Amino acid sequence: MRSMWEGSISFGLINIPIRLYTAARDRKLNFHFLHKDDFCPIKYQKICKTTGKEIPYEEIVRGYEYEKGKFVVLEQDYFEKAFTILEGLFDRNKSE
Predict the structure, then answer these.
(1) CB–CB of 28/64 below 8 Å?
(2) Which residues are registered as beta bridge partners of 74?
(3) Is this prediction's pTM over 0.70?
């Protein structure tokens, strides 16, 4: 890993080299298409992995896999609420 900053601290004849590294990691949030009825993952062709049948668009929901085979389903109204909250925060910061 490459350091962000390099420097040193000196005490008379003693010189201590210092390197500064980032403590955070970039994480990517991946959402999956899921079948609305049983929350099983859907392939790119919109085919249910469990039944092998093609799933119509109306029955597809988005979900986040937090553990192997376990999903949290996120619906459109969650995204809309989050957007309005964020929009309010940014509007407040602009006026200050």
Answers:
(1) no
(2) 62
(3) no
